[in-house]
Design brief:
23% of the residues lie in helices and 39% in strands. The strands form 2 sheets. Strands 1, 2, 3, 6, 7 and 8 form a 6-stranded mixed β-sheet that branches. The protein has one domain: D-tyrosyl-trna(Tyr) Deacylase, Chain: A (3-Layer(bba) Sandwich), CATH 3.50.80. It is of the alpha/beta class. The protein is built from 3 helices and 8 strands. It is globular, with a radius of gyration of 15 Å.
Length: 145
């Protein structure tokens, strides 16, 4: 699994003109699942994302986690995170998991984050989504397991 975490002041996702998920300060997480991923990756990455110290303390140092600051998470499925553009001009997505594997693993990731005590909103799996991200910093990290 691969995550792109973006620290935000706010974020939202819209499908067919309707906002289906919105958060205030926290993290927008783009999540991709590859063939062979499983429960272990979902659990490890959820714990890491909820507890990663990327929010500033009083001295401006990264000493606080999403949980510490009471932030929210907006999780957006994105199979294109496993796009390979090394050959040719059209990316290959052969490493991305099939939808029947990816969707339940993303749901498991979300369940694990909620078990960490974080409020989570999501996009809609396989939908065309308009994602609004108001980066804070900007701070953007990639996690993979």
């Amino acid at each position: 699994m691969r995550l792109v975490l973006q620290r935000v002041v706010k974020g939202s996702v819209t499908v067919d003109g309707e906002v289906v998920g919105a958060i205030g300060p926290g993290l927008v997480v783009l999540i991709g699942v590859r063939e062979g991923d499983g429960e272990e990756q979902a659990a490890w990455l959820a714990h890491k994302a909820a507890n990663l110290r990327i929010f500033a303390d009083e001295q401006g140092k990264f000493n606080r986690s999403l949980r510490d600051v009471g932030g929210e998470m907006l999780v957006i499925s994105q199979f294109t995170l496993y796009g390979d553009a090394q050959k040719g001009l059209r990316p290959s997505f052969s490493d991305a998991a099939r939808p029947e594997l990816a969707e339940p693993l993303i749901d498991r990731f979300v369940a694990h984050v909620r078990a960490e005590g974080v409020r989570v909103q999501t996009g809609v799996f396989q939908a065309m989504m308009l994602v609004e991200i108001h980066n804070d910093g900007p701070v953007t990290l990639i996690l993979e397991r």
